[in-house]
């Protein structure tokens, strides 16, 4: 028999709220919170393990509840009041789940012959990370490597802003020095996006095995990358400001690389 939860004081609901709010709780419990049918579908397709599923039948059509959701270790029906307490978005379809996170290493990556990899140093904002993951999925890049990160890959805001693309990309979190060593060992040429660069991005050859390195909006890349990349490139700016949002800059560079590669055709 399916357990029904109608109170926001229920211990399971209180725990989900803690998981949403605190990365320390997500690490401690080894759980992440996923909201929305599309995001859950992408997580399931990528082989993520769902531990609990909560559905609000006042919002979610019964016919949309797939077999995989019902096969979670714990399956609950929740009231509309409880769902609205948990939901980040008014537009989601009435389903929230807990799942086991997945943490890849550089050695786990499965790469094409001439991979395109995006590297983000010290990314802080979940929204920027999510937007870049969405772009990476759209371009079908090989991997996103996050170095010396200040952001939680599985922050609910990252999952939401990436529209679930945190599950469709190969994502690795590691140290900058380890990534630099790995790129050299695997003959992957590194290109740093830097305001001090002289070479224009669209005059740069991105057709080989390439990693494009992006820094923070406030400070750009640190010396470890500026001194250890093969080349530095710049996006020309014609106005008063000298830089773009990091997710916008990443999209420009990623799709220039894709254009040069004839979009993998």
CATH level 1 class label of the largest domain: Alpha Beta
Structural category? alpha/beta
Number of strands: 12
Kindly state the percentage of residues in helix. 25-40%
Overview of this structure, please?
The longest helix has 15 residues, at 246-260. The protein has helices at residues 11-21, 23-29, 37-45, 67-70, 80-86, 126-139, 156-161, 176-185, 223-226, 246-260, and strands at residues 3-5, 32-35, 50-55, 74-78, 95-99, 116-121, 143-147, 171-174, 189-193, 199-200, 210-214, 231-234. The chain is α/β, with parallel strands linked by helices. 33% of the residues lie in helices and 20% in strands. The strands form two sheets. A seven-stranded parallel β-sheet has the order 8-7-6-11-9-12-10, sandwiched between helices. A five-stranded mixed β-sheet has the order 1-4-3-5-2, with helices on both faces. It has two domains: 3-99, Ribosomal protein L30/S12 (60s Ribosomal Protein L30, Chain: A), CATH 3.30.1330.30; 106-264, Alpha/beta knot (3-Layer(aba) Sandwich). α1 (11-21) crosses α2 and α6 runs parallel beside α10 (246-260). The protein has ten helices and twelve strands.
Give structural attributes:
single chain; alpha/beta; 60s Ribosomal Protein L30, Chain: A; Alpha/beta knot; 2 domains; 5-stranded mixed β-sheet; 20% strand
């Amino acid at each position: 028999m399916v357990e029904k939860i109608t109170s926001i004081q229920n211990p399971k609901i209180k725990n989900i709220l803690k998981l949403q709010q605190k990365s320390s709780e997500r690490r401690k419990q080894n759980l992440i919170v996923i909201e929305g049918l599309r995001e859950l579908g992408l997580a399931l397709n990528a082989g993520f393990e769902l531990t609990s599923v909560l559905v609000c039948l006042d919002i979610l059509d019964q016919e949309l509840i797939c077999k995989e959701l019902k096969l979670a270790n714990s399956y609950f029906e929740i009231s509309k009041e409880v769902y609205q307490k948990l939901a980040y978005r008014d537009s989601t379809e009435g389903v929230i789940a807990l799942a086991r996170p997945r943490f890849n290493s550089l050695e786990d990556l499965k790469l094409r012959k001439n991979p395109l990899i995006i590297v983000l140093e010290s990314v802080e904002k979940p929204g920027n990370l999510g937007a870049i993951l969405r772009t990476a999925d759209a371009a079908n890049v090989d991997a996103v490597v996050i170095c010396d990160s200040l952001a939680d890959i599985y922050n609910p805001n990252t999952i939401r802003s990436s529209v679930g693309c945190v599950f469709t990309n190969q994502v690795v979190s590691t140290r900058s020095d380890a990534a630099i060593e790995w790129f050299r060992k695997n003959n992957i040429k590194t290109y740093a996006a830097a305001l001090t660069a002289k070479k224009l991005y669209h005059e740069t050859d991105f057709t080989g095995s390439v990693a494009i390195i992006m820094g923070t909006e406030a400070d750009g890349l640190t010396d470890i990358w500026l001194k250890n990349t093969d080349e530095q490139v710049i996006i020309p700016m014609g106005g008063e400001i000298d830089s773009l949002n990091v997710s916008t800059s990443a999209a420009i560079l990623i799709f220039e690389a894709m254009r040069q590669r004839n979009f993998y055709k």
